[in-house]
Amino acid sequence: MFILGIDTSCDDTSCAVVRDGRQVLSNIVSSQTKLHEKFGGVVPEIASRRHLEVLIPACSEALEQAGVTLKQIDLIAVTNGPGLLGSLLVGVGFAKGMAHAAQVPLIDVHHIAGHIYANFLGEELPEFPVLNLVVSGGHSELILMEAHGHFTLLGETRDDAAGEVFDKVAREMGLGFPGGPYLDRLAETGDPGKIPFPLPKIRGSKYDYSFSGIKTRALLEFEAGDKSEGFKADLAAGFRKGVVNQLLNPVEELLKETGARSFALSGGAAANALLRRKSRELATRLGIPLFIPPMELCTDNGAMIAAAGYYKYKLTGGGWSETESSMMECSAGLELRSWEETA
User: Which fold is adopted by the domain 2-117+297-342?
Assistant: First the structure.
């Protein structure tokens, strides 16, 4: 079964062809970094307009690289939220037209489900139940998946997401855009013990996160510091360690409490070097398999959407009919729900 996956949830335009939810035949990503870097962040209208310009070439390249034609595609999967509304509208509208032209089912995919299913692309699959830590610019969530399409939210950020604070602190420090990768590389050269960032105290759910306080402290430390390269490296290292410690703090208890047999890391911030190392150390100590997507599947991409679309299609017994697909909606704040609820 050939699935065409389309993602335009933010600023990257991606189209991919995946076979049977597992084998990536192509994964084309058109980055808009150069367009947005002078603004220090993504400009929604610019992102939407760029999606319009590059979707057709990206889709054509994905099909060509996979060695298939549109007539051979069996299913089209598209991100319908959450994300930037204008960008989502472009992708969903394009997917509707493609599904109509190819006369194939169209299925909607939640962006977070896509990130989770990036770990199902490949030979070795996570064993259920899977505890997923999804970390990106917009999301920091702990999600238990007991079977395909069964999502239970166990913890989430109450304010900023981890990837978001990495980018904001990096921007204030004068690093490149997007800031997270630049801060990560700088942190590798610093001493994380010079400027410590203790875990925050959060009232209520013990599995929730809060990154606004650690972001504010990092900004205050930078404002008061001498701005030398050594100081910047130490601040980056201490700040990164503080964020990673918070992200992994509830994981061991949740793995034991839920009886999870696999631990999976995903999302754009899953590319963070320290988070990957500390996750491996934790998994090794607990004797539990760890799954982390390759770097190219951590950030937004069409392959993960195609994978999630395949499993959703198999579970729910079908995709959108031509009539239903014309009514498919997208939402900037779409809630993640188990697939049976929408079957």
Answer: Nucleotidyltransferase; domain 5 (3.30.420)
Residue entry with tokens 């089912």:
105
Instruction: Report whether CATH 2.30.30.60 matches the domain 128-292.
Output: no
Residues 97-120: tens digit of each pLDDT? 999 999 999 999 999 999 999 999
CB 212 within 8 A of CB 240: no
Peptide bond into 178 cis (omega under 30): yes
Domain extents for the chain?
2-117+297-342, 128-292
Does the pTM of the predicted model rise above 0.85?
yes
Q: Tens digits of per-residue pLDDT, 236-282?
A: 999 999 999 999 999 999 999 999 999 999 999 999 999 999 999 99
pLDDT of residue 138: 86
β-pair partners for 152: 144
Most confident range (mean pLDDT) of 17-31, 170-184, 196-210 is: 17-31
Alpha-carbon dihedral angle through residues 170, 176, 181, 186, given to the nearest 10 degrees: -70
Contacts of 305 (CB under 8 A, 6+ apart): 5, 6, 7, 14, 16, 77, 78, 79, 109, 114
CA distance 293 to 277: 14
Residue 339's Cα: distance from chain center in Å? 19
